[in-house]
Write a structure and sequence with these properties.
Arc Repressor Mutant, subunit A; 3 strands; three-stranded antiparallel sheet; 181 residues; homodimer; DNA-binding; mainly alpha
DNA sequence: GTCCACATGTAACTGGTTACATGATTGG
DNA sequence: CCAATCATGTAACCAGTTACATGTGGAC
């Protein structure tokens, strides 16, 4: 049940229409909680029905018309409740690790190329995060509420750093592995 | 579409019944791809229908009777195909990061306790992985097919290490943050 | 014989994904 | 007026989750 709360957070940061939210979920919040426009519209409907948000201005009844939402007090309260509530961390769920485990049984043919591709993708993501860090969090001047946002960004940076290192390591092992087993 | 391939891998490592698989998915493979017994039985049915696996011995027709499965050549081929096929990495999807981002808007009240709890859980998981490493991969004698399994374990160790460090860092920031904002 | 653990399953629901539908606005 | 783009939505499907159902075999 995280998507509604991701949307509430985004709307508190800035009231938006469905499409604007969709675009923001392609970056920013989307870096650690992605969503498609179908999910977002469905969830906006539910949130409005529950009285957590409301459509902003003059009535725009239907399709094709832009409709912006803002968070109501009940929505803010629900988000605060959810943020403070205890939640268990989810175990890792990663396909590449599964593929490596499978490769230990059926052989490593063809895997190397995709490992290299993933390494490149993670390096690119890491560079993007570091660019954001340079731009939004120059050293030595974090405003107090920016501290938390910087913390989140650093998690992204550290995770991508982990992947690049691990994949590099994996490719080294592959270099030393006998062909196709 | 990863669960069937996780099951094929597990069955190749050792033919098993549904319940045995369920137990093995509580550790080992389950460390990076978990599954409940309901999922496993459903998937075993599909895999058998597709001719990737077959029930092992004398016919045991129904409920209450143990039923073991082994992988057929077609199943092994499918697993090899899947392992080698190019697949995009999934973006991060983490509730704690979302909660921190929300806390930047609605305040950090109550979050600190759960951060501490998560830190403990990740430390415990890390210790468990390191114990497995000591037991199964003593330094200096990795057999070639064990190399890949060790690589997977090291990913788990490094990820838990990342989380413990990041959570420690986050708690330090919280110590310096003004109360409840 | 009854209870409990073992073992296999069904049903209903939820969140996420993919494909498609429909209306409004704007540039040519 | 036509095509492209913006914007909102519907429908069908799939994987994972939760709750429950049913049968077997052994301990007492």
């Amino acid at each position: 049940m995280s998507l509604p709360h991701a949307i509430l957070t985004a709307l508190l940061e800035r009231p938006s229409s469905g499409l604007e939210l969709t675009r923001r979920f392609d970056k920013s919040i989307g870096y650690f909680w992605s969503a498609t426009h179908q999910q977002i519209y469905r969830e906006l409907g539910r949130l409005e029905a529950e009285g957590y948000i409301r459509a902003l201005p003059a009535e725009q009844p239907a399709r094709g018309q832009k409709k912006s939402y803002e968070v109501l007090p009940a929505g803010r309260a629900e988000l605060a409740r959810w943020t403070a509530a205890s939640q268990d961390p989810k175990p890792i769920r990663d396909v590449m690790l599964l593929r490596l485990r499978a490769a230990a049984v059926v052989g490593t043919d063809g895997l190397q190329a995709d490992l290299r591709r993933h390494l490149e993708l993670h390096q690119r993501q890491l560079a993007e995060y570091e660019e954001i860090q340079r731009r939004d969090f120059p050293p030595g001047k974090d405003a107090p509420e920016d501290r938390l946002r910087h913390l989140v960004l650093r998690a992204g940076i550290d995770l991508e750093t982990f992947w690049t290192q691990w994949l590099t390591h994996a490719l080294q092992e592959f270099g030393e592995l006998p062909e196709g087993s």
